[in-house]
Amino acid sequence: MSKLKFSPFSEKQLTVLSWWHPESSYCDFDGLICDGAVRSGKTLCMSISFVAWSFFAFNETSFAISGKTVQSVRRNIVTPILPILRQLGFVCSEKLSKNEITITYGKRTNRFFLFGGKDEASASLIQGMTLGGVLFDEVALMPRSFVEQAIARCSLEGAKFWFNCNPENPQHWFKKEWIEKCHDKNCLHLHFRMQDNPSLSKKVIERYESLYSGTFYERFVEGKWVAAEGIVYPQFSEKVHVCSPPPEPFEKYYISCDYGTVNPSSFGLWGRKDGIWYRIEEYYHDSRREGVQKTDEEHYSSLEKLASGREIEGVIVDPSAASFIQCISRHGTFRPIPAKNQVIDGIRLVSDCLKAKKIMFSPLCRDSIREFSLYRWDSSSSKDAVRKENDHAMDDIRYFVSTVLEKNENEFFVFSTERR
User: Fold this and answer.
1) Helix or strand run (H / E) with residue 223
2) What is the mean pLDDT of the chain?
3) Separation CA 398–CA 392 (nearest Å)
4) Do residues 406 and 341 lie in contact, with contact meaning Cβ atoms separated by under 8 Å?
């Protein structure tokens, strides 16, 4: 096996690697918090340091490594670190069915359990354990109950906590309770920028800087805990994103739907050509504006008219629109696909598409164009949230991008994974 090569570590990375050692001036801290920009070199150094510390301080002890999901833990931590540990002389044995890794170095052996902290119910997964320490990757994506339950499991003398995250809303519970109170919690706080990762060239940093704008730029590139405010999609420009689609036929067609009865219904017809998805036409019915409320069957007739005999790969539908999904299935012409409906992740994906000009809009899509100029963040919320107005075309566009483009064009979304 070829040896892995490392660039020289930055000063902050060296601090992460050594803060727990008795000769370090930080060794009396109970925990380490690393936050900041994406690709700033936090995760790998913290993972190596966590394992090294566990063998320095304990033997025959259990530890936890937690992420939003077990899959993200494997992707972000386990897959990168195991080859490094083996090269350093550690013997690593995985039990995939139990989400457990047993690691041995010399005469010492420790066990590392993998956990996903995606919702409030996740706290029950870790109850009853006794741990020497826990590493939280993407801690800002986890519910407070899970994090506090995991910390409560660390009852052994000398146990330490390790936190790693990218910034979220400045009112986020982790920022308020841990980062702002790090001295009260006896934790060392290190804030990372991309420049703290020596393995990133200037060209790569410039590429990341070109990917994002607005709130996401401030969070992921500058590493700031900032509130989402103003227009949701500042990337959208009529001069850039509105154009006449190329002549048909297209390589593939989809229709995306945000279904409403009292609220507006918005359907979009999408076609792909030369790697770009064009919103060719749309159907938008506002019962309040039109003074007429339509039935499922009437909306379905409009769906058929929008498809106009084209071979549609699938109809992406608001997953809560059960009656309309049944209506589509009953007719048997189109395949209904419940949409992925993670709002903030979906907004980020749409932002990426707009930035890269991967989605374009026909001048016929007047309601989409109108909503882009009106769709705004809710500045009164303590969490990232959008105003529930002028959002129906925005929702069906988000459904399409999250469900179709993320699945079929993963090479484009290499920068839009759960690892933020």
Assistant:
1) none
2) 90
3) 10
4) no
Q: Which residue has the tokens 């400045």?
A: 170
Rounded to 5 degrees, φ, ψ at 45 are -60, -40
Q: Closest by alpha carbon to 358, among 307, 313, 408?
A: 408
Cα separation of 394 and 347, whole Å?
9
Q: Which two tokens stand for residue 221?
A: 């590139």
C-alpha of 316 from chain center? 21
d(C-alpha 132, C-alpha 138), whole Å: 20
Determine the average pLDDT of the residues in 371-397. Answer: 88
What pTM does this model have? 0.69
Given the structure tokens 């841990």, which residue do they identify? Answer: 178
For the segment 1-13, what is each residue's pLDDT rounded down to a tens digit? Answer: 455 566 688 999 9
Per DSSP, the residues of 75-93 read IIIIHHHHHHHHHTT-EEE
- Helices 42-57, 79-87: axis angle to 10 degrees equals 50
285 alpha-carbon distance from chain centroid: 32
Question: E strands within 208-322?
Answer: 252-258, 265-273, 276-285, 315-317
What is the rounded distance in angstroms from the CA atom of residue 279 to the CA atom of residue 410? Answer: 20
Region label for 275, one of left (φ > 0), alpha (ψ between -120 and 50) or beta (otherwise): left
Q: Where are the alpha helices (DSSP H) in 212-342?
A: 214-220, 238-241, 287-290, 296-307, 322-331
| Amino acid (one-letter) located at 105 | Y
What is the DSSP code (8-state) at residue 387? -
Q: Token pair of 138, please?
A: 């993407």
Q: Per residue in 48-89, pLDDT tens?
A: 999 999 999 999 999 999 999 999 999 999 999 999 999 999
The DSSP output letter for 402 is: I
Sheet holding 133-137, edge to edge: 91-95, 100-105, 108-116, 62-67, 133-137, 160-165, 31-36, 187-192
In degrees rounded to 5, what are phi and psi of residue 64? -120, 140
Amino acid identity of residue 151, one-letter, is I
Residue pointed to by tokens 């629109």: 321
Spatial contact of 87 and 3, defined as CB atoms under 8 Å apart:
yes
- Is the preceding peptide bond at 249 cis, omega within 30 degrees of 0? yes
* Paired residues of 266 in beta bridges: 258, 284
